[in-house]
Write a structure and sequence with these properties.
It is built from 16 helices and two strands. By secondary structure, the protein is mainly α. InterPro entries: HGSNAT_cat.
Length: 390
Amino acid sequence: MRDVPSKQLDDTRLPEIDRLRGLVMVIMALDHMRDFFDADALRFSPTDLDHTYPFLFFTRFITHFCAPTFAVLAGVSAYLYGARRSHKELTLFLATRGVWLILLEIVVISPTWGGPGRISLGTLWAIGCGLLALSVLSLARPAVVFAIGAAILLGHNLLDGIKAADFGALAPWWRLLHEPGALPFDLPGHLLYPALPWIGVLALGYGLGPLFKRPAQERDAVLRKAGLGALALFIVLRATNFYGDPRAFTLRADEIGSALSFLNVTKYPPSLLYLLVTLGGAALALPALERLRGAAGRALVVFGRTPLFFYVLHLYAGAAGALALAAWRGYSLQDISAVIKSGAPPADFGTGLAGAYVAWILVVVGLYPLCRWFAEIKRRRSDLWWLSYL
């Protein structure tokens, strides 16, 4: 449910990368405001075809593009960073960033979702694991890293039949890799993003890194072909139910329902079909964003250069706003906790999906000046090493 950015790596400043990164930040915020303000998020999943409706489904579906796009760009950025440095510097950089993101997930991000004392391992955890894996994989040639990433993406659904319960006491360790569920050592909380497929996405991005050293026209031609090829493969595999997603496509009573079923791919863990449709879309979006100019292009660049800063601020702003709204309507903290646990909020709880869109616009617009200020600080104060962690 949470599409979250990793820390932007110190890549060469390619505006189209920043624009794409910024775009997924803005879209990601929509999904999180839906979580905070639309009480239907407590009642059912927006991809539950027996309860959802098209506007809600597509609000969720468009945000599917965020985590894979950010992860693959993190891999690209890792390559671009390492292209100007020694293997030792790159390894240290990726390892420390990976550990930092995992700690940030546990200490700073988890309370916004599960409350104090509970751990929720989401995308920061997954991308942190990917950076740790890249700190080792990057010792190999990019083509080898690309092949490893592609093999994970293409093959990890073969592991769907292996369940954590088959491992007995070691079950939580399997969940860390490939199955959402409980945490090791009986830690309070939940694992939402198993690491293995996300490691594959970052490895794929790292392997694509040399493409971003080529002239833009040549690079964009390759990305368009790759994007169209990924979408074509998605359509073939999805239509035939041959392979690539544990949730089969089925014809439903009406055309809209059938269309939703066709697009209803699995994110936890991200299936091959999920990654084909999202990464295929991202490959087509990046060349288009290269031509985006004006205020919109500049705004996306700002968000793309301050992703972690925006991510933390927007979560706390959204959570605070949702709590303030509930308190204004007369709910105590105990009432709110009981509603969340019950999964059956009263009719006046939250704002509905339309209100979530309003909250999204307010948060994005409200945080833009802060992100622009912080982006300028990062640009001017490259001497402050700790800024690279924010």
